[in-house]
Design brief:
With about 140 residues, the protein is mostly beta strands. It contains 2 helices and 10 strands, in the order E-E-E-H-E-E-E-E-E-E-E-H.
C-alpha cells in the first residue's frame, strides 16, 4: 500500500494489510488535524518504509509527549513512530488503497466537539457544491 502527503513530497509504503482504522475525537487530535476527528491506524515498524521526503518532515512535540509530524511543504500530517512501541502511526487520509478498511473504534468520544453531531436536516452530497454560491445556500 502506498501513501503520500497533499503535495506528494512525503511518500511511504506499507507492506501489511490494514483492516482497522480508528477515529480519535480528543481536542489534541482536532487541533492537529483541523477536523472533528483524526482517522488513523498503526503498523509494525518492519512493515513501513519511507520512499521520499523524509528530510522535509518537521515535528511538534508538547511537554505531555503528544507529537505531530507534518510535511514542511504542504502541512499534511505524516506518519511517525510511536515512542518505542515498534509501531508507526499512519494518518488514514494519506493512504491510496483503503478499499477493505473500516473504522473499528472511536476514541475519546466524551471530549468530541459539540458541533460534530449532525442535525436531522444535514445535507449529504456525493460531490461538493458546484459553486461558492451553492455552498452559501447550503449553509
Amino acid at each position: 500500500m502506498k501513501g503520500e502527503c497533499l503535495c506528494g513530497t512525503v511518500k511511504f509504503e506499507i507492506e501489511e494489510e490494514i483492516r482497522n482504522l480508528y477515529q480519535c475525537h480528543c481536542s489534541l487530535c482536532r487541533k492537529a488535524t483541523g477536523a472533528a476527528a483524526n482517522a488513523a491506524t498503526f503498523v509494525q515498524d518492519s512493515a513501513f518504509r519511507w520512499v521520499s521526503g523524509e528530510s522535509d518532515i518537521r515535528s511538534y512535540k508538547k511537554p505531555s509527549g503528544f507529537r505531530s509530524d507534518f510535511c514542511s511543504v504542504c502541512g499534511s500530517p505524516v506518519p511517525n513512530s510511536l515512542r518505542g512501541s515498534g509501531m508507526v502511526w499512519i494518518p488514514a487520509g494519506l493512504l491510496d488503497e483503503l478499499d477493505t478498511s473500516r473504522v473499528s473504534a472511536h476514541l475519546h468520544t466524551k471530549s468530541a466537539a459539540p458541533w460534530e453531531q449532525e442535525s436531522a436536516e444535514c445535507v449529504r452530497l456525493d460531490g461538493g457544491p458546484d459553486s461558492l454560491e451553492s455552498l452559501n445556500k447550503l449553509l
